[in-house]
Backbone:
């Protein structure tokens, strides 16, 4: 499920890869997947989502530690 919050009148979404809050109007990247729009803090998060969207939707964001782990293992590519 696509998460969102409202902060100071701005609709924020949660990046499904890293878990960061993203202003929907200023998102670095977006994608529509199974009828839902997902918002990303950077294009690298979108690329990671595209590799395995079902896993990220099911398990939730990797968080910064998970992303660092993938960077160290060479899995997260630009």
Residues:
């Amino acid at each position: 499920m696509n998460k969102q919050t409202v902060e100071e009148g701005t609709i924020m979404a949660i990046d499904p890869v890293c878990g960061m809050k993203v202003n929907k109007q200023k998102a670095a990247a977006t994608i529509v997947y199974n009828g839902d729009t997902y918002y990303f803090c950077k294009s690298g998060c979108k690329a990671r989502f595209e590799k395995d969207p079902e896993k990220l939707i099911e398990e939730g964001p990797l968080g910064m530690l998970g992303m660092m782990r993938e960077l160290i293992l060479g899995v997260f590519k630009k």
Summary: Residues 48 and 76 are 7 Å apart (CA to CA). Helices lie at 43-51, 53-59, 63-73. The chain has three helices and five strands. The two ends are 25 Å apart (CA to CA).
